[in-house]
Amino acid sequence: MSAAVVLLLLFFSGITSNADEVTKFPISLSSSLTPSTNSTWLSHSNKFAFGFYPTPNGYAVCVSFTSYFDKSRTVVWTANTDDPIVPDNAVMLLTEDGLVLKSTDSSETVVMIGNSSRPIGGAAMLDNGNFVLFDYHGSVTWQTFDHPTDCLVPGQSLSPGTQLLSHASETDLRKGMFRLKMQIDGNLVLYDSDSLDVSIDAYYESGTAGRGNNISLTLQNDGHLCLFDGTSVVMNITTGGNLTFEVLYLVRIDPDGIFRVYSRSWQPEDDWRPIYCGYKDVDAADCRCLPGYDRISSGVGCISNLVMDCSDKDQSSKFGMTRIQYVTWEDNYYSALDVSSEQGCEEACLKDCSCRVALYRNGQCRKQKLPLRYGRWQTVIEDVAFDLRCLFDIKGGTLICI
Description:
Layout: H1 3-9, E1 27-28, E2 32-33, E3 40-42, E4 48-55, E5 58-65, E6 75-78, E7 85-86, E8 90-95, E9 98-103, E10 109-113, E11 120-125, E12 131-135, E13 140-143, E14 151-152, E15 157-158, E16 163-167, E17 175-182, E18 188-192, E19 204-205, E20 216-219, E21 225-228, E22 233-236, E23 247-253, E24 259-265, E25 273-277, E26 293-295, E27 302-304, E28 319-324, E29 327-328, E30 333-338, H2 342-350, E31 357-361, E32 364-368, E33 376-377, E34 384-392, E35 399-401
Antiparallel strand pairs: 1-11, 2-8, 3-4, 4-5, 5-6, 5-7, 8-9, 9-10, 11-12, 12-13, 14-23, 15-20, 16-17, 17-18, 18-19, 20-21, 21-22, 23-24, 24-25, 26-27, 28-34, 29-33, 30-32, 31-32, 31-34, 34-35
């Protein structure tokens, strides 16, 4: 019997042996929600809520903390992250097929949430943050714990082949730019959302590839986050504390691409505090573009805001190169040339209107594709970076760098 079913026994008034009779569930068939009136179903102790969650862009279907325990109503699960916003006149109905979202002025299904191969008999919002659908016999047919979005709560695991997706922003619940993948090869990897599952596109790897195909990322009740193969711990990511029901933990891949562990007490006036950020104690990442570059609106990377006229391919009379220290990017070049010096690399880039950034090392000049990705500060870098973000003031004859 699953842990979810055991918890539900506290709520049930009884399970009959007659298959024709429906088990009495906390949320029965034909129960419904609307954004404007009864917008959520609550867990037994009013800690968690499932249902319509207000955002600046409209309503989304989420599992969140209730305002009684968390004034900000932190979201831990979101339905349909590709397009989470539902019409203001939506109604959600629990049916034998699953949770059906319809418009009040139409019988047409807008979204199906948690559909099941077995007829559904009822549902429950559990106190551990798991929203569960059950068949008529009380067996789990679908649960949010099996379909995580950007978070894990204690008792939840990220199983092989699944991933967490960041939100677009703190208030925009659409799919964002980063993902954390628990690969079936046993490796836990951070990628941008549009990349392939290949090492060259990773900006973090746990280094556990080949350790087994049954490894999951697991958050335990004491805040211990680890890679677990079902028998033993493969890798500790954080250490656990003393198990106490007065402290709650949360793991989330944030919109900035950093994977953080948070903690807070159950006191309503408390707030979430990061207790672990990133990996290898990299906890002060500042994700931003260099001066003269803007973050692209979709995807990951930065693009130059310098306007150039490529009718004249040689830009040396109009622009100049700036040497950038202690910065490097993913080395994704479209052309590599043999040159005799750093100055030769600058000149080669200026004579190519497609060139914005070049990396120089040991007599080779590599012109980089845009957008630039995975930029980072490092004190020891073999490459010398040159950036086209200076232009000549025609009247004054000076070089102005933006």
